Amino acid sequence: MSATAERLLAIAREIVIDEGADAVSMRRVAAAAGVTPMTIYRHYANREALLNSVAHACFAEIGHRWTHRPRSADLDKRVIELLDDHLDFALGQPRLYDFLFTERREGARRWPDNFRDGGSPSLNLVADVVRDGIRRGELRDEDEWELALMFAAMIHGLVRLYGAGRIDLSEEEFRALCHRFVGRMLDGFRA
Questions:
Q1: Average of pLDDT values for 125-152?
Q2: Tell me, what's the pLDDT at 72?
Q3: CB count in 10 Å sphere of residue 45
Q4: What is the number of alpha carbons within 13 Å of residue 114 lying toward its C-beta?
Q5: I want to staple 159 with a disulfide (CB 3.0 to 4.6 A). Which of 63, 90, 148, 180 is the partner?
Q6: Cβ-count burial of 181 within 10 angstroms (0-12 exposed, 13-18 middle, 19+ buried)?
Q7: What phi and psi values does residue 110 have, to the nearest 5 degrees?
Q8: What is the average per-residue pLDDT within 182-186?
């Protein structure tokens, strides 16, 4: 990727972080980069291509960061570590989180094929933990991808409710609620 393409991508990402994906326009990104609007089209065919590049870069970064952190061998601790990483991201960058995980987006991964094929850097990590738990006899022998999706769907739902003000708790209380819910779900899948 050229330096100009990387700069355009970084600007688009910052706009998503600050204002959400709806605020990204080709003209705005070009103006912020100090290039003509036509220059941006040399690197990105259209707004959707630019936003898809933002999404792919962000997911790669998330997957890399979450994969390369020290991991506990204990199943419960690994699940909580992933949950905390997820909540840190969701609560720290809510607009980017919404764009990546919950907004309808052209080119977004779709269940089941894109996930079962290992196309999700974030859900892959959850499926890996579940798969390890099954292999070690700690969790029931069920479809690891469906179990991973259940965990992810619950957390995404809780984060959306919290972000919309439907869960009236402090951030600390909300995190504790998420921990309790994940613990209960995990208990329900124990072997």
A1: 96
A2: 84
A3: 11
A4: 9
A5: 90
A6: middle
A7: -125, 145
A8: 97
Q: How far is CA 99 from CA 86, 105, 150, 157, in A?
A: 14, 8, 20, 14
What is the amino acid identity at position 65?
A: R
8 Å CB contact between 71 and 78: yes
**140 and 154 in contact (C-beta within 8 Å)?**
no
Averaged pLDDT of the chain: 94
Residue whose pair of structure tokens reads 């600050």 in the numeric block: 18
Coil, helix or strand for 18?
helix
